[in-house]
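User: Can you predict the 3D structure for this chain?
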Amino acid sequence: MALPGAPEAGSDEVVIRDMFLTDIDAVLEIEAASFPTPWSRSAYHSELLENTFATYLVLELHGRVVAYGGMWLILDEAHITNVAVHPDFRGHYLGERIMRGLMERARALGARRMTLEVRRSNLVAQRLYQKLGFVQLGVRKGYYTDTHEDAFIMWKDPL
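Assistant: Here is the predicted structure, written as C-alpha coordinates:
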Protein backbone atom coordinates (compact mmCIF):
# COMPACT_ATOMS: atom_id res chain seq x y z
CA MET A 1 0.00 0.00 0.00
CA ALA A 2 1.42 3.38 -1.00
CA LEU A 3 1.76 6.15 1.54
CA PRO A 4 -0.72 8.91 0.62
CA GLY A 5 1.22 11.69 -1.00
CA ALA A 6 4.49 9.78 -0.76
CA PRO A 7 6.83 10.25 -3.69
CA GLU A 8 8.41 7.49 -5.69
CA ALA A 9 11.97 6.55 -4.81
CA GLY A 10 13.63 9.24 -6.93
CA SER A 11 11.14 12.02 -6.31
CA ASP A 12 12.14 15.59 -5.57
CA GLU A 13 9.62 15.57 -2.70
CA VAL A 14 12.20 13.84 -0.48
CA VAL A 15 15.14 15.95 0.65
CA ILE A 16 18.02 14.83 2.86
CA ARG A 17 19.91 17.75 4.36
CA ASP A 18 21.91 18.85 7.39
CA MET A 19 20.00 19.15 10.64
CA PHE A 20 19.64 22.68 12.01
CA LEU A 21 18.62 23.98 15.44
CA THR A 22 15.22 24.82 13.95
CA ASP A 23 14.69 21.09 13.29
CA ILE A 24 15.02 20.07 16.95
CA ASP A 25 11.28 20.28 17.72
CA ALA A 26 10.45 17.89 14.88
CA VAL A 27 13.33 15.60 15.83
CA LEU A 28 12.20 15.51 19.47
CA GLU A 29 8.70 14.53 18.36
CA ILE A 30 10.11 11.61 16.34
CA GLU A 31 12.50 10.75 19.18
CA ALA A 32 9.70 10.61 21.77
CA ALA A 33 7.60 8.37 19.51
CA SER A 34 10.53 6.06 18.77
CA PHE A 35 12.58 5.42 21.89
CA PRO A 36 11.85 4.52 25.53
CA THR A 37 14.44 7.09 26.69
CA PRO A 38 14.58 9.92 24.15
CA TRP A 39 17.44 12.34 23.89
CA SER A 40 16.86 15.81 25.32
CA ARG A 41 16.73 19.15 23.57
CA SER A 42 20.02 20.09 25.20
CA ALA A 43 21.66 16.89 23.91
CA TYR A 44 20.78 17.78 20.32
CA HIS A 45 21.74 21.40 20.88
CA SER A 46 25.14 20.27 22.14
CA GLU A 47 25.61 17.79 19.28
CA LEU A 48 24.86 20.46 16.66
CA LEU A 49 26.86 23.32 18.19
CA GLU A 50 29.66 21.79 20.26
CA ASN A 51 30.52 18.28 19.07
CA THR A 52 33.03 18.68 16.26
CA PHE A 53 32.82 14.93 15.53
CA ALA A 54 29.04 15.00 14.97
CA THR A 55 27.06 15.11 11.75
CA TYR A 56 23.25 15.01 11.79
CA LEU A 57 20.92 14.80 8.82
CA VAL A 58 17.15 15.09 8.47
CA LEU A 59 14.88 13.69 5.81
CA GLU A 60 12.06 15.95 4.69
CA LEU A 61 8.98 14.63 2.93
CA HIS A 62 6.96 17.39 1.28
CA GLY A 63 8.77 19.90 3.51
CA ARG A 64 8.11 18.05 6.79
CA VAL A 65 10.95 16.46 8.81
CA VAL A 66 9.92 12.81 9.14
CA ALA A 67 13.27 11.09 9.77
CA TYR A 68 16.73 11.88 11.05
CA GLY A 69 20.05 10.26 11.72
CA GLY A 70 23.34 11.14 13.29
CA MET A 71 26.90 9.94 13.47
CA TRP A 72 30.25 10.76 14.93
CA LEU A 73 33.26 10.64 12.64
CA ILE A 74 36.45 9.79 14.49
CA LEU A 75 39.50 9.28 12.29
CA ASP A 76 38.28 6.95 9.54
CA GLU A 77 35.33 5.46 11.47
CA ALA A 78 31.75 6.66 11.41
CA HIS A 79 29.69 5.66 14.45
CA ILE A 80 25.91 5.93 14.05
CA THR A 81 24.46 7.59 17.15
CA ASN A 82 20.78 7.40 16.30
CA VAL A 83 18.37 6.94 13.42
CA ALA A 84 14.58 7.20 13.53
CA VAL A 85 11.57 7.59 11.26
CA HIS A 86 8.30 9.07 12.45
CA PRO A 87 5.87 6.18 13.13
CA ASP A 88 3.35 7.56 10.62
CA PHE A 89 5.94 7.23 7.84
CA ARG A 90 7.56 3.87 8.58
CA GLY A 91 7.55 1.06 6.04
CA HIS A 92 8.29 3.30 3.05
CA TYR A 93 12.09 2.96 2.84
CA LEU A 94 12.75 6.32 4.49
CA GLY A 95 14.99 4.70 7.12
CA GLU A 96 17.02 3.20 4.31
CA ARG A 97 17.24 6.57 2.61
CA ILE A 98 18.48 8.39 5.70
CA MET A 99 21.01 5.60 6.34
CA ARG A 100 22.26 5.82 2.75
CA GLY A 101 22.54 9.59 3.22
CA LEU A 102 24.64 9.08 6.34
CA MET A 103 26.82 6.51 4.58
CA GLU A 104 27.37 8.84 1.63
CA ARG A 105 28.25 11.74 3.92
CA ALA A 106 30.61 9.54 5.96
CA ARG A 107 32.46 8.48 2.80
CA ALA A 108 32.68 12.10 1.67
CA LEU A 109 34.22 12.98 5.05
CA GLY A 110 36.83 10.23 4.74
CA ALA A 111 35.28 7.36 6.68
CA ARG A 112 36.36 3.91 5.59
CA ARG A 113 34.07 1.91 7.87
CA MET A 114 30.89 2.42 9.87
CA THR A 115 29.55 0.93 13.09
CA LEU A 116 26.39 1.04 15.16
CA GLU A 117 24.59 -0.64 18.03
CA VAL A 118 21.06 -1.95 17.64
CA ARG A 119 18.71 -3.38 20.23
CA ARG A 120 18.50 -7.16 20.20
CA SER A 121 14.69 -6.82 19.86
CA ASN A 122 14.77 -4.38 16.92
CA LEU A 123 14.50 -6.90 14.11
CA VAL A 124 13.30 -4.34 11.55
CA ALA A 125 16.41 -2.22 12.02
CA GLN A 126 18.66 -5.28 12.00
CA ARG A 127 17.22 -6.35 8.63
CA LEU A 128 17.78 -2.86 7.23
CA TYR A 129 21.38 -2.78 8.39
CA GLN A 130 22.02 -6.25 6.97
CA LYS A 131 20.50 -5.13 3.65
CA LEU A 132 22.98 -2.24 3.66
CA GLY A 133 25.91 -4.60 4.18
CA PHE A 134 26.38 -4.41 7.96
CA VAL A 135 27.36 -7.59 9.79
CA GLN A 136 26.97 -8.40 13.47
CA LEU A 137 30.38 -8.71 15.08
CA GLY A 138 29.62 -8.53 18.78
CA VAL A 139 27.17 -8.06 21.62
CA ARG A 140 27.16 -5.43 24.35
CA LYS A 141 25.38 -7.10 27.29
CA GLY A 142 22.88 -4.82 29.04
CA TYR A 143 23.98 -1.88 26.86
CA TYR A 144 20.69 0.01 26.98
CA THR A 145 20.45 1.41 30.49
CA ASP A 146 16.69 2.06 30.26
CA THR A 147 15.78 -1.61 29.68
CA HIS A 148 19.11 -3.42 30.22
CA GLU A 149 18.63 -4.92 26.77
CA ASP A 150 21.63 -6.21 24.87
CA ALA A 151 22.92 -4.38 21.82
CA PHE A 152 24.27 -6.06 18.73
CA ILE A 153 27.39 -4.34 17.42
CA MET A 154 27.27 -4.15 13.64
CA TRP A 155 29.98 -3.04 11.21
CA LYS A 156 30.20 -2.17 7.57
CA ASP A 157 33.83 -2.49 6.52
CA PRO A 158 34.71 -1.26 3.99
CA LEU A 159 32.16 1.51 3.80
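The chain has four helices and seven strands. The two ends are 32 Å apart (CA to CA).
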